[in-house]
Amino acid sequence: MSHQMSDQKKVKLWDFPVRLFHWALVVAIVTAWWTNRQLMIDIHAIAGYSVLALVLFRIIWGFVGSSNARFGSFIKGPDKVIGYAVKIPTGSMAELTYAGHNPAGGWMVVVLIVLVAIQAISGLFASEDTFLFFDGPLVAHVSSDVARIMNWIHRTNINLIYVMVGLHVFAALFYLVAKRENLIGAMVTGVRTVPVEMAARFAQIRFASPVVGIAILIVCGLIVWGMVTVARG
Length: 233
Known about the structure:
This protein has 233 residues and is mainly alpha-helical. It has a single domain, classed as Transmembrane di-heme cytochromes, Chain C (Fumarate Reductase Cytochrome B subunit, Up-down Bundle). The chain is 66% helix and 4% strand. It has helices at residues 16-37, 41-64, 71-74, 78-87, 93-96, 103-123, 144-178, 183-189, 200-203, 210-231; strands spanning 8-12, 191-195. The chain has a two-stranded antiparallel sheet. The radius of gyration is 20 Å and the shape is elongated. The termini are far apart. It is found in: Cell membrane. It is a multi-pass membrane protein.
């Protein structure tokens, strides 16, 4: 029986903290990109601090969050990543569907988290001599050589982020158009519609408390805010 003809069932896929992180990160990155182009450096800095808080939250949630949000559930070895990748063009959704990130998508998430973390951290060391007459909150605590290196990283790394974001969007659109799977909608609502014979794998997800997730995010925001405030004296 084909996917389209199978009886369908709605299953819960993504918890609220993961969805909040995802879309808040999108907003923060877009804001940072736009304000940089418009030379709105104060807002650019706030967007960067927001990215740092979000990344810190996602790292913590990757160990204590819902079962399919934990790194251990979606970081797979190269054999599984390659095996999954070769199935993508012609594989059925029964073969390609995971109760969370698939092996290829999981590594894309990890790479994106690492890249945006590098971008946010390097921005803390931005020097007014090379970056829009703005001093990052930690630039006074490092040598001029370190600040220069951090500025180079900040200006170069953003191009890698653009590439990975482009791949991420392409993958989502590919699944939507070629596989008729709305992964974007699932990240909005937290719910995905699958054939009934695939629903059992989603029933195994153990969801963590969203209240705990929000509390962790707030604490991460306070940590970043406190660090910036103390660093600026």
